[in-house]
UniProtKB/TrEMBL annotation:
Residues 18-273 form the Indole-3-glycerol phosphate synthase domain. This is Indole-3-glycerol phosphate synthase. One of its GO terms (molecular function) is phosphoribosylanthranilate isomerase activity. Its EC number is 4.1.1.48. One of its GO terms (biological process) is L-tryptophan biosynthetic process. The keyword Lyase applies. The gene is trpC.
Length: 277
């Protein structure tokens, strides 16, 4: 394929918290791309073990009338601070798989979430579930890095990307047989996300400026997701009633992290959500 032409320019205007995170991310990618050039990262990506089908797994859950749970593994967050200690990604991945989760999401951002590529590698090796790399993707280098570390899907946050960036990052992911979860927070971002090819439209219930959550965001946006796409409700989902509320709005797929990470028995907590319908 032709060499990606996106340059590491400064991020566009975005909400305060996201803006600070992206400023750190651009600096991080600049430094790491010097240490490992893009051509070498692409070589590693294309030599990696074949990806698992993240998108099909969720589509099948919906077709079967099941909850498509993307169970998240993260140690900390900007809003919640340190969430889980000790933090054992491999054990958590196995717990989620035994609970009936459809996919995993693993945070790899270090400055804000205390994440690491090794967390994703350990989680993926511990189970057979497809894995989303949860990070702030701003450059092709990161997409190749995601595949090289074993990720099966990447997250594209529409609030952080121009249409050109989102399309190019998706094209690279598709060339690597990876899935894409396009995340939106309002109707305008959804309209932009629908210009991508991915079937997965993530609706984040968290306000990126205040870090507060409201399930009303998914209730407002999910009914506008076309029938050929799959809405995924993200953030603020804690109980079986919340799962049923999201399903009633049209989102049978959910991404749940912090509320599960805070449970002593992760398997039981995840199983309760999976069996909510």
């Amino acid at each position: 394929m032709n060499a990606p032409h996106i340059i590491l320019s400064e991020p566009q205007t975005v909400p305060d918290t996201l803006s600070r995170i992206l400023a750190d991310k651009y600096e991080e990618v600049r430094a790491r791309a010097v240490a490992t050039p893009l051509a070498e990262m692409e070589r590693q990506a294309r030599a990696a073990q074949a990806p698992r089908d993240f998108v099909t797994a969720l589509c099948q859950a919906v077709a079967d009338g099941r909850v498509g749970l993307i169970a998240e593994i993260k140690r900390a967050s900007p809003s919640g601070g340190l969430i889980r200690d000790p933090f054992e990604p491999a054990i958590l991945a196995d717990d989620y798989a035994r609970a009936g989760a459809t996919c995993l999401s693993v945070l790899t951002d270090a400055p804000w979430f205390q994440g690491h590529a090794d967390h994703l590698k350990a989680a993926r090796a511990a189970c057979a579930l497809p894995v989303l790399r949860k990070d702030f993707m701003v450059h092709p280098w990161q997409v190749f890095e995601a595949r090289a570390m074993g990720a099966d899907c990447i997250l594209l946050i529409m609030a952080a990307l121009s249409d050109q960036q989102a399309e190019e990052l998706e094209d690279i992911a598709r060339s690597l047989d990876m899935g894409v979860l396009a995340e939106v927070h309002d109707r305008a971002e959804m309209d932009r996300a629908l210009g991508l090819q991915t079937r997965l439209i993530g609706i984040n219930n968290r306000n990126l400026k205040t870090l507060q959550t409201s399930l009303e965001t998914s209730e407002e946006l999910a009914p506008h997701v076309p029938a050929d796409r799959i809405p995924v409700a993200e953030s603020g989902i804690r109980t079986p009633d919340d799962v049923r509320r999201m399903a009633a709005a049209g989102a049978r797929c959910i991404l749940v992290g912090e509320s599960l990470m805070r449970q002593a028995d992760v398997t039981a907590a995840a199983s309760e959500l999976v069996q909510a319908l």
